[in-house]
Amino acid sequence: MTKYGVVVGSIREHSFSKGVADALVAGLPEDAEVSYLSISDLPLYSQDYDADSPAEYTKFRAEVAAQDAFIFVTPEHNRSISAALKNALDVASRPWGENVWAGKPALVASQSISGISGVLAHHVLRQSLVFLDMPTMQQPELYIGNVQNLSDEEGHIINTDTQEFLASAAKQFVTFAKKFNV
């Protein structure tokens, strides 16, 4: 059984990113073990903590290490990823030489209320994942624009075509992840 970690880059209640993540998870096999990793309580990364990490860092790093593959869903904040998501990437990749993301396959999706669909955040995240040594599925590219028109007031994707597209992408990710013995 594959363990899929889900990292939602928005910490907002009823976030559209969480809705996209849920629609992706719906496409995973029934026996998949899925864990949503919380990033909202991580103190800002500081190298000063490398010698004596806060308990939140230690817990998060262990949760990342326990996963076989990752689904990342990011909003676009100022043409980049959210500060919370960047912080989570940093926390689990440090101290230097102890990167627990390494080697784990990744799926990236972005969403935005604009028509450009979080494209820039998507590519910023991919660039970071390359550095973190995470093989990332290239196709299909998951840019979800005008997400507010596809979702209900709680952020759930309600558009049937979008639900089917995201579930199909998750099925493709399962095949992709298997190439890396997960």
TrEMBL record:
GO terms for molecular function: azobenzene reductase (NADP+) activity; FMN binding. It is an enzyme of class 1 (oxidoreductase). Its EC number is 1.7.1.6. SUPFAM superfamilies: Flavoproteins. Residues 3-147 form the NADPH-dependent FMN reductase-like domain. Keywords: Oxidoreductase. One of its GO terms (cellular component) is cytosol. It comes from the Bacteria. Pfam families: FMN_red (PF03358). The keyword Oxidoreductase applies. PANTHER family: CHROMATE REDUCTASE (PTHR30543), NAD(P)H-DEPENDENT FMN REDUCTASE LOT6 (PTHR30543:SF21). This is NADPH azoreductase.
